[in-house]
């Protein structure tokens, strides 16, 4: 067993025990198990910049932000972003300072395959990620790599992007290049980040590629992404696992959805919403029976029929596909940020047809819940515990890695609100693990750095490190939360009071 494989083996199976004797018996702090891992997360388009440098092909977010600057609140784009493409050494030094044990980042498909296809591989793209991996290795930080975080090569979008079934084959080819090239170094893989988000917001809405075709193209996208995920997992299992080892999962976003009232109708509506928002992608992969959630199947079939369609707008898997996709995971990557309330909807919600109309629920948040700098994100830590338990009960307690949890606040280094957010969510997570028995092996904070927040541009800041976008070298400065998180990562414990890590940020 080589070092890296051993490292991952420990991370996932026996829970890597680098930090031992963290506490004595009199210590009243809340502590995670010795093997529990802390990390931070980023994504290629949001931090790299260098959008057209050294052979990189155009991605859909390049095209979209250039053609439609008005779609981004501050009319910014990811052309330069955090310039992480040029700052491998600097960024890894900061990661090391954080004391974390893993770093989750994504690979830009069009940096590796500029046209999206496997016949031409861009050597400089390979060089960049190899350099990053080597630097992480030197610093004993385990890479967790996402193959796809929203940035499809533009050339593939011209073919219809994820609405085209052939995209699954092209994704398999891309994954093969990644496994062949980086498989020796990377042992923890995520195929996709948040298919719900890029299928619903991208194909059902106005994020890139901005198809705005909810109730149709969102379902086509989801269908092909699920097929693509299953195909890559089976290829990994058959051709790579024995040879190079490793673990493969998928990252899904799960906001907790709580019934607005105790009425039977609202309880039912909240469960339907969970099946639509989360079960859409989780049920085919993680449930015992596989395929789409039965409630999603029946509601969309019935709605389609009522609307005069001969075929359901939600495509059908073949029995072979159901089998291929079911169980296609070694672990679940879970993103969790916030909670919503759900009320039963009275028919005809918004545009018809649409995802929201098919689901027939009303989603909102409570005014009293603490606000953040993102309109969709309220601080509701108890929802984290509920979401984790719902996963445990519905999908036979899968091994889970929290691949994102985080919050945006205003600029500034004394971000006590962020410290409070992380601390309260980590407490909820601790309860879910130690009282409820959820099998969670690690936690990544989103994000390592302030970055390009899609249609919110640079106006929403999620970073443990602040980035000064006015300074020519995009200076990174640790916030108070970086110090707090360093303490947590190094001790495995939540400090009893914030004075434990108070530090002068001036
Ligand atoms: C994550 O998604 C993404 O994985 C990550 O790239 C991103 O940086 C991070 O969130 C923080 O934003 O604008 O009101 O229509 C979390 C799920 C889905 C939440 C899209 C925000 C848009 C809400 N996100 N959603 S709104």
From TrEMBL:
Signal peptide: 1-20
Enzyme Commission number(s) from the entry: 3.2.1.21
GO terms (BP aspect): carbohydrate metabolic process
One term of GO molecular function: beta-glucosidase activity
Classification via PROSITE patterns: GLYCOSYL_HYDROL_F1_1, GLYCOSYL_HYDROL_F1_2
Top-level EC class: hydrolase
Pfam family, one: Glyco_hydro_1
SUPFAM superfamilies referenced in this protein's UniProt entry, alphabetically: (Trans)glycosidases (SSF51445)
Swiss-Prot/TrEMBL keywords: Glycoprotein, Glycosidase, Hydrolase, Signal
Keyword field contains Glycoprotein: yes
Residue numbers annotated as active site: 404 (nucleophile)
Similarity comment: Belongs to the glycosyl hydrolase 1 family.
Subunit record text: Homodimer.
Protein name as it appears in the record: beta-glucosidase
């Amino acid at each position: 067993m080589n070092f890296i494989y051993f490292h991952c083996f420990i991370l996932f199976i026996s829970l890597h025990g680098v930090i031992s004797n963290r506490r004595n018996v009199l210590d009243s702090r809340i502590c995670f198990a010795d093997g529990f891992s802390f990390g931070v997360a980023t994504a290629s388009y949001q931090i790299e910049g260098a959008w057209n440098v050294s052979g990189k092909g155009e991605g859909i977010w390049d095209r979209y932000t250039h053609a439609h600057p008005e779609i981004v609140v501050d009319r910014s784009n990811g052309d330069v972003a955090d310039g992480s493409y040029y700052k491998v050494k600097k960024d890894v030094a900061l990661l090391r300072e954080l004391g974390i044990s893993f770093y989750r980042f994504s690979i830009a498909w069009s940096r590796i395959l500029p046209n999206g296809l496997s016949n031409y591989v861009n050597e400089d793209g390979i060089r960049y990620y190899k350099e990053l991996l080597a630097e992480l290795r030197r610093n004993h930080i385990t890479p967790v790599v996402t193959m796809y975080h929203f940035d499809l090569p533009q050339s593939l979008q011209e073919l219809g992007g994820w609405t085209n079934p052939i995209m699954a084959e092209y994704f398999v080819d891309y994954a093969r290049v990644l496994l062949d090239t980086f498989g020796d170094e990377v042992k923890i893989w995520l195929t996709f980040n948040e298919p719900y988000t890029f299928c619903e917001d991208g194909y059902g809405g106005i994020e890139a590629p901005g198809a705005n075709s909810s109730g149709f193209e969102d379902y086509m996208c989801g269908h092909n992404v699920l097929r693509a995920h299953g195909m890559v997992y089976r290829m990994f299992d058959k051709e790579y696992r024995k040879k190079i080892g490793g673990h493969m999962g998928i990252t899904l976003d799960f906001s907790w959805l709580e019934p607005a009232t105790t009425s039977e109708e609202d309880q039912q509506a909240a469960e339907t919403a969970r099946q639509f928002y989360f079960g859409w992608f989780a049920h085919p992969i993680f449930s015992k029976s596989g395929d789409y959630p039965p409630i999603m199947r029946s509601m969309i079939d019935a709605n389609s029929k009522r609307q005069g369609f001969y075929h359901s707008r939600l495509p059908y898997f073949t029995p072979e596909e159901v089998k291929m996709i079911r169980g296609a995971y070694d672990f679940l990557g879970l993103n969790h940020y916030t909670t919503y309330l759900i009320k039963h909807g009275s028919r005809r919600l918004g545009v018809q047809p649409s995802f929201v109309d098919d689901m027939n629920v009303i989603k909102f948040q409570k005014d009293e819940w603490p606000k953040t700098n993102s309109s969709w994100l309220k601080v509701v830590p108890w929802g984290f515990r509920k979401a984790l338990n719902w996963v445990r009960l519905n999908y036979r307690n899968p091994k889970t890695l929290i691949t994102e949890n985080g919050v945006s606040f205003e600029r500034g280094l004394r971000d006590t609100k962020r410290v409070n957010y992380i601390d309260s969510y980590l407490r909820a997570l601790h309860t879910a693990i130690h009282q409820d028995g959820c099998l969670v092996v690690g936690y990544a904070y989103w994000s390592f750095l302030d970055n390009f927040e899609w249609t919110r541009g640079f106006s929403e800041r999620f970073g443990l490190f602040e980035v000064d976008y006015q300074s020519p070298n995009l200076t990174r400065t640790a916030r108070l939360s970086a110090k707090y998180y360093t303490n947590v990562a190094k001790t495995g414990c939540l400090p009893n009071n914030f004075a434990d890590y108070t530090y002068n940020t001036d």
